């Protein structure tokens, strides 16, 4: 539950108190209580339950699942960043693994395993780390095996107006040397230029082209987490309008600025992808601290560059590597614990929406469907598994999450059949190579599946993708029924839960306490993740 509000209802038709619940999946519930006392009691209980003070109160750590250790370990080994580095041909004669952060002493928000340029000495690594915000020095994120160009990530330098670091300048030069096909690199500062300049007054800022002679600066203009949080709230208000006029809807969409921000994130990824694939130039990406906008830009570029990341397993690996292991602050951004609400921001939401926008232009390029993106977002805030708990790899290890919970990826992979995009064709030209999206404003749409979860009673029109998915699911069910019938005809046992070889699916009803049951009116069915 993201927000709870009590309102008093007094009219000819209703008399009582209304409890309004706004959930993190953007559904809104209205609970009507004849007695104000009952409403206040439920409000107090839900407020406390929705704001846990410690990780031990979260769902995945407060239960003791009846499973063995082997099954839990298997869930955590399904998706590993090390597998992705091996897939990219690392280590090689350009990029090597370093143990400098094996105990998280150099940077406590970076993973223990890092790949750096072969030309960067241990002294250069430490000096660069001291000169970068939060110690987040330039390290490898993605390596393009054809052009030998690389996407690297870091945080802003602590340069101020005139500060400099010889080791950090050598570190950036080392990144350039790791690409034999280019004599310079792009430094992509994902922030608006004015914001980056303002940070200089606080002793931070961005690289000077006078001090770093081998760079070309590029500003992407992605706004900060506070602007994004406010913008998302405004587009939610648009989605909750019941009977808006066309002018009200378009005005609300424009005033939210949301699609403008989505375009900025995609534009950053497009610039990086073109530099890597077309120019063969390496790119160093950073924002302020290097765990929000940097993660967005690097991962969007990777999806554009690499068909593997457009598969289900590939996207899991990408998020595990560029978001989870590199210290995106999931607990802060999704408000897992009772903390500063100003730390909450839809950073991952924007990345998932960029993927959805790309899928609208390239419907055959992605192995997964919209449901996969929506469920992935739900699992990021529901705390059903341990993957998205904590703000860094170090913090997750201190919580012993691999011993106390399961990985979210095993849950998604187990249900992969329902996430399959029936239009996906791995052998077609659209799914191979670099995606080159059209980023003109008219190509961006409002993601109705996310921001309008409560539909009107009339069923929405079925899309071709939904139709093909239902046909595919029905075909699989018929094939299973046929196989079961053939087994029974051959004298084999009927499958459990079936009669004459036909599978039956049961649904579990939702039971509410009598006091609450008669007072609930909701704009959509109650789900498990209030």
TrEMBL record:
Key words of the record: Lipid metabolism
Gene Ontology CC: one annotated term: cytoplasm
Domain Myotubularin phosphatase: 75-451
UniProt region (Disordered), positions on chain: 483-503
Signal peptide: none
Active site: 287 (phosphocysteine intermediate)
One Pfam assignment: PH-GRAM_MTMR6-like
Gene3D superfamilies assigned to the protein according to its UniProt record, in alphabetical order: Pleckstrin-homology domain (PH domain)/Phosphotyrosine-binding domain (PTB)
Record: residues binding substrate: 224-225, 287-293
GO process terms (BP): phosphatidylinositol dephosphorylation
Superkingdom: Eukaryota
One term of GO molecular function: phosphatidylinositol-3,5-bisphosphate phosphatase activity
Alphabetized SMART domains for the sequence: PTPc_motif
Family: Belongs to the protein-tyrosine phosphatase family. Non-receptor class myotubularin subfamily.
PANTHER family: MYOTUBULARIN-RELATED, PHOSPHATIDYLINOSITOL-3-PHOSPHATASE
Protein name stated in the entry: Myotubularin related protein 7b
